[in-house]
Design brief:
This protein is mostly helical and about 210 residues long. The chain contains 8 helices and 2 strands.
C-alpha cells in the first residue's frame, strides 16, 4: 500500500502531511493523558515486529503502489489506537528516510492510508465493539479479521483517490480500483487471519495486554 512520491502532486502530498500531522498530534496528546511507562518498551518491540513484516512487499503492476500487510490493527490491539498510530508513524518514517520505501512527499498519504483508517477508524468502530467486554477467542478472531480487511480496503481506496486527485498517473479510476481493491481484499484477509491468530495466542498467554488496550 506504500505510495511513491511520483504518484503524488505537491498539493495533495502537503495536504495529507497536514492531515496526518494533526492526527499524530491528537494521538500524542491522548497517549500522554493515559501514560503507561511499561507500554513504551512494548511499543518498541511491537514496532520492530511490524516493521519487519512490512518489509515483505510486492509491486502491484500498473499502479505504482506496493502491497503488504500494515500491522496497524495488531499494534492497536496491544498498545491502544493512539500508541498504535504513533508506532505506525515511526515505522513509516524510518522506511521513507532509510529504505526509500515511499518518500517524504508521500509520507502523509502513507500514514493516513495505513495508520489513520486502521488505528483511528477500523479499530475503534469495528474491532473494539466486537471484541470488548467478555473476551473470547472467537470474538477476537472475528473482530481482528474483519477490522484488518476494512482497514486494508479503506487504505486502498484512499490510494486510488489520492493518485487521481494528483493527476500524475494516467489510468482510469475503474481500472485502478479493479487493481487495488481485490488485491488488498486478499491482503486484508491474510493479515486479518495472521493478526487474529496472534491476538488469540496473546489472549491465552497474557490476556491483560489486550484487556488494558480497550
Amino acid at each position: 500500500m506504500h505510495m511513491a512520491d511520483a504518484l503524488i502532486s505537491p498539493a495533495v502530498g502537503l495536504s495529507m502531511v497536514a492531515v496526518s500531522g494533526v492526527s499524530l498530534a491528537y494521538c500524542a496528546a491522548r497517549a500522554k493523558s493515559i501514560f503507561e511507562p511499561r507500554k513504551i518498551a512494548l511499543a518498541g518491540v511491537m514496532g520492530a515486529f511490524v516493521f519487519a513484516a512490512q518489509m515483505l512487499n510486492f509491486s502491484i503492476p500498473g499502479t505504482g503502489s506496493s502491497g503488504h500487510v500494515s500491522g496497524a490493527i495488531f499494534l492497536s490491539a496491544i498498545l491502544g489506537p493512539w500508541r498504535g498510530f504513533i508506532s505506525m508513524a515511526c515505522i513509516l518514517a524510518i522506511q521513507a528516510l532509510f529504505f526509500a520505501d515511499g518518500g517524504l512527499l508521500a509520507y502523509g498519504c502513507n500514514l493516513f492510508n495505513m495508520g489513520f483508517w486502521s488505528c483511528l477508524v477500523s479499530f475503534p468502530l469495528i474491532y473494539s465493539p466486537i471484541a470488548r467486554g467478555n473476551f473470547s477467542k472467537a470474538k477476537i478472531f472475528f473482530a481482528g479479521t474483519f477490522a484488518c480487511v476494512a482497514g486494508a480496503e479503506l487504505g486502498a481506496l484512499s490510494v486510488v483517490l489520492e493518485t487521481l486527485a494528483s493527476d500524475t498517473f494516467k489510468i482510469s479510476a475503474k481500472n485502478f480500483l479493479c487493481l487495488m481493491l481485490p488485491i488488498h481484499l486478499a491482503i486484508g484477509v491474510v493479515e486479518g487471519i495472521a493478526s487474529a491468530s496472534l491476538l488469540c495466542f496473546i489472549h491465552s498467554a497474557r490476556p491483560e495486554l489486550l484487556e488494558k488496550s480497550q
